[in-house]
Amino acid sequence: MKLSNNTLKDLPETIKRPDYDRSKLTPGIVHIGLGNFHRAHQSWYLHRLMQKGLAHDWAIVGAGVRPYDEEMRQKMAAQDYLTTLIELDPAGSSAEVVGAMIDYVPVEEGNGALIERMAQPEIRIVALTVTEGGYFIDPATKGFDATHPDIVHDAANPWRPRTAFGAMVAALKLRRDRGVGPFTGQSCDNLQGNGAVLRQTVVSLARLSDPELAEWIDTNCTFPNAMVDCIVPATGPKELELAQEFGIEDAVPVTHENFRQWVIEDDFCAGRPDWDKAGATFSDDVHRYETMKIRILNGGHQVISNPGDLLSVETISGCMEHPLIAALFEKVEREEIMPHVAPVPEFTPQTYVALIKKRFSNPKIVDTTRRVAFDGSSRHPGFLVPSIRACLDRGMAVEGLALVEALWARYCLGTREDGSVIAPNDPFWTDLTTLAAEAREVPERWLTMRHIYGDLGDDARFATPFTRWLGVIHAEGVEAALRAYLA
């Protein structure tokens, strides 16, 4: 049955669906970046509030700023912006139709429609999921990268921006000039201090063309930090087939695990939904939650995805079934990551590692090693380098993390152990493959990437084991290196 408002009542009884009247919902949030994660996470929390009779004036308007977003808009519009969420649990799968999104801004050059929509008084939150590498951060300084061509364009053409951030700046100028007031900018990406990063990007971009507006934004807008968590695989033929098995024809279904977490700093200048009534946590200590999740879960993903893909293990659950990769995960987490993570009210580091091991091992979640290994040039410095530095600061060895970085260098050669080719899997793949080839002869070349490693290449406590492990990998292979480390 094709998914739409008209067919909701005819869906099989086992499928949860909106109990509220979607025709009476009014918008409160524009969300830029309508990928799977948003629809399985933030949209779900809002939907659950709506099921309780709450937040009916906070419905989501989707948006995108790239040409490929238009394809998603058309698919969503054809099914009244409904999404089928399929929960994949070893005990059994279930489906739910989420209806918190009610519109999607047309995607057009110059983003005029998006700017005008964000300038409307009823929009009180502009949220984003644009990936951790999408915030125009200078990798060397961690400050704003004003030299990026898209930023240069937006600074010179503030009314015809290319970026989401340029559109936000233009909309905020309209709101200020019309006396509408500010909105909250809410990042939902895997970045430590994601709200602070979003503030830096928006204010810095505004300052390039209108310093007075930048000051107004910095003074009046809020950018709460948040930690988000849910494993959400990409959608392909298998996921489309799953939806059909539930009796639903959905062009863009989403699969997800049986776990969600959202910890949010309560800093909203124009109001917010009561997400805590749907299971989210408002906290003044988001950083501690972020550190636990980013280092143990996101760092753990990077620990296993490179050796997994190199050994032609296709999925994360497959990695946890592989005796050497699973043992690598356990040992690195226990000895070099977990000791530097503080507890949070819900979890100790030990119980959190056990939870992550269980989540990674879920065979129903077909999360590919390739997807998880994507964009290592953003993920390694964000998810693993902080643990390396924490170990060194405490005088601890980094044998495991040095091996993990050597495995990434080997991965970036672009071939698996069986000789098959790894398709480009990083925005800077060409640069990485060039360095990886050089590092095959001179391992230290890999550590010259200051924007990733900083001064770690000069620290023998890290550089020496990295060099040794990369030599073992090239001379004896990935499995031999894993066995040597685990021995």
Automatic annotation (TrEMBL):
Asked if the record carries the keyword Thylakoid, the reply is no
Q: Gene3D superfamilies, per this entry?
A: N-(1-d-carboxylethyl)-l-norvaline Dehydrogenase, domain 2 (1.10.1040.10), NAD(P)-binding Rossmann-like Domain (3.40.50.720)
Which UniProt key words apply to this protein? Oxidoreductase
Q: Where is the Mannitol dehydrogenase N-terminal domain?
A: 28-277
Q: Where is the Mannitol dehydrogenase C-terminal domain?
A: 285-467
- At the top level, the lineage of the source is Bacteria
What protein am I looking at? Mannitol 2-dehydrogenase
The protein's GO terms of the molecular function aspect are: oxidoreductase activity, acting on the CH-OH group of donors, NAD or NADP as acceptor
Query: Which Pfam families does its entry note?
Result: Mannitol_dh, Mannitol_dh_C
Extract the InterPro entries matched here: 6-PGluconate_DH-like_C_sf, 6PGD_dom2, Mannitol_DH, Mannitol_DH/Oxidoreductase, Mannitol_DH_C, Mannitol_DH_N, NAD(P)-bd_dom_sf
